[in-house]
Prior knowledge:
The structure holds 2 protein chains of 2 kinds.
Chain A: H1 4-13, H2 22-27, H3 30-35, H4 50-63, H5 68-95, H6 99-111, H7 125-133, H8 141-150, H9 152-157, H10 181-190, H11 200-210, E1 213-215, E2 226-228, E3 238-240, E4 243-245, H12 250-261, H13 264-278, H14 285-297, H15 302-311, H16 313-317, H17 326-336, H18 342-354, H19 378-395, H20 401-407, H21 415-422, H22 427-436, H23 438-441
Antiparallel strand pairs in A: 1-2, 3-4
Helix pairs in contact in A: 4-5, 5-17, 8-12, 10-11, 13-14, 14-15, 17-18, 18-19, 19-22, 21-22
Chain B: H1 3-15, H2 17-24, E1 39-45, H3 51-54, H4 63-67, E2 82-83, E3 89-90, H5 98-103, E4 106-113, H6 121-130, H7 142-150, E5 160-163, E6 178-180, H8 190-199, H9 204-224, H10 244-262, E7 269-274, H11 289-308, E8 315-321, E9 341-346, E10 377-378, H12 379-390, H13 395-402
Parallel strand pairs in B: 1-7, 1-8, 4-10, 5-6, 5-7
Antiparallel strand pairs in B: 2-3, 4-9, 8-9
Amino acid sequence: MLDLKAASIAANRFGFGARSGELDAIAQDPRGWLRQQLVPEALQAAGTPSSAQLSQFLQVRRERKADPDAAKTLRKELQQNFRAAAAKRTLDAAGSAAPFRERLVQFWSNHFTVSIQRPVVIPVAVGFENEAIRPNVLGSFRALLGAAVAHPAMLLYLDNAYSIGPNSQAARKINRGINENLAREVLELHTVGVDGGYSQTDITEFAKILTGWSIANNHEPNSGQFRYRPFVHEPGDKTVMGKTHPEAGQDEATAVLNDLASRPATARHVATKLARHFVADDPPKEAVDALARTFIETDGDLHAVSLTLIGLPQIWSAPLTKVKTPNDLVTSACRTFGIADAEAGEMLLIGLKQMDQVPFAALSPAGWPDIAESWVSPEAMMTRVEWAMAAGQRLDGHADARDIAKGSIQPVASDSTLFHIDHAPSSAEALALLIASPEFQRR
Amino acid sequence: MSLDTIILPRRAFLSGVGAAALAAGLPRVVLADAPTDKRFVLIILRGAMDGLNVVPPYGDPNYAALRAQITIAKPGDTDGASDLNGFFGLHPALAEIAPWYKEGALLPVHAVASPYRDRSHFDGQDMLENGMLSPRDTQSGWLNRALTALGGGGGDRRIGLAVGQSIPLVLRGPTRVASWAPTRMPEANDSFLTLVQAVYQNDRLLSAALADGIRATAAADQAIGAGNAPMANAGTAGSDDGKPNQYKAQKALAEAAGRMLADPNGPRIAAFDTQGWDTHAAQGGAKGRLATALGGLQASLVSLRAALGPAWKDTVVLMATEFGRTAHVNGTNGTDHGTGTAALLAGGAVAGGKVLGEWPGLAETQLYQSRDLMPTTDLRAVIKTVLYEHLGVSRDRLDGLVFPNSSDARVMKGITRA
């Protein structure tokens, strides 16, 4: 039996909406459609490795006094590369054959936020997602955590690359010391959460353990990649959250990450965030419990956790609980209207800037907020409507609002929405109204 | 596209509100009397501002040793602080507004903290804004409850204004507030908005936001006027180094807030955010990330003052952050999350020209947990004083509604001219 309502939930809550004609196909077996997406990608993400771009950036930063013009040119080039890669990322998600997997990539990328608010992240932001996040979203949480924390983008964004143990060999020569930013955010944001039972001392000790996790500079081998620096590592045994880690250099942080990944508080923290993203802003306890249980029982197997997500009854009983973020909105508009290249999509993509969600530009390490209240202030609502109107004008002549409505929002749309789209004064306004409608603004 | 081309059609939309809007059931703009003619602006410094370098205690014998290479030099030295009172100085990046201190329009309060004692930005900001004793309580913010106490939610008059794309927690709550941000998009015409309102009828969240958005846009455009409008581009990410655009965007926000507050029929209380205070690395001394953030703040204040015009004399601006930073410089030319910090007050209604707060000292034993500036003044006491003296919120309402469980944070003396 065709279940178009479930198909709509599968396409929107788990993915980025439905391509033309896709809804009918999904309706054959909505849960099966989601499950078959949960296979690792055949081709790992291509593109320039972030280390090459970072290496260039580091070299120019070193030489910027000697050759300021070259520095400026390269900075511009890296900016342009970033913008192009970010646009491609949105369009790739919009056109993906596995949009659920793509949403998981973006969810985890936001969980482990790196942000271009720090300019050094610009050359590595998109690479971070492709190299550290993408290959690990269906593997173990521990592997994902390790890849994210050890990636140069994270080590630079949260300052660990230049943190130096106060009693390390390097400290005798260099007037620098420890920086606890990464240690704090791994605990607070990435693993056990703010109520996870750690103290300031645990943060400081973990920061000592992380000293030495750095990046290779441009005059070193493997420039722009992870590099452990024994000379800056704080010597001695350290205790984090009741667990003593004997001096073991680089492996100490590995041991702490192992410990953190297996704590029930981490399971709870991750389960809550997943449920908030996929079920509702205020996630029902049953959904959080189910996800946390799977996480604990499978040692953080994210494939199993994703299957649990598909099975949550709370998702299938209530459509449209989540207001789309600007990123969801723009990506789903590109998918719904079949926009595949940056030039055609320019007007839609500019919405990301207008609605204040430039990819990889979150204002803090906590990432983008995941509740409606953060995205639908009166001002933001006006911007959404204005963007919808501009999009309607841009798409006019390329798409028919009634056809598109049928293949996208119809199974969950109110009679009033469909009526007003039908009777809109112009085809551009019909398209704009479809995009502005509650059924398209929500997922 | 200049803002003029945006404002004009919007104004046209406003003037056309009559028939079409009534038909659509839009509320008309009715201007009730405001409960106060005083103005209050809250600037939230997100990321934990380093009070020790913004208002450096250059007279403290331990200051320079703790701060090492990021020490702010003494007044008179190269790149030195502006002197305030022979003990405290003001960061050189604030040199343009240092004369406000002598004029009595600038008042630092030092060694300040909210009741929050852990060091998470996110919980710290929640507690800075919710005015409660736990970061978990995020139903409403103290400024919204102060509006409630002032009766600022009655009728169609919105006394509170959030400047920026989202409403910060401090202004969220039962009393409805206006919000405004610059936009570069063509605005929607009224017939389209009417249609959208019709399809939002059964979506309470979206319809309420849209109705408020329409109202705020109209009010803001009226107040700002078409001429001379601030260049509107709040987006900073993607600029070459993030700096010039950032200043421009900040100035535009502050200027717009000032103009709207200056309007006798406009809002009385506004809040906006500034970023860039989380100086873990490359914080620097006279130059560096902190100086950059302060440059933006100073530009905002100068724009705000100019835009307020005669209303400046009735204005208190409070600049507050979630917590301070470590007393010691860290390993990367910066500082990590700490506790005590400084709050800054500015405005014609401020009793400035002095530094308030009991100085705890910077010796190892005087630091909080041997690491941070020891807080000696509860930030809630500073805020309560402004709300009480300047805006006229009663003590009962302050303790019962605005800041429950704050009886130990007593109203102070000498903050405002009221």
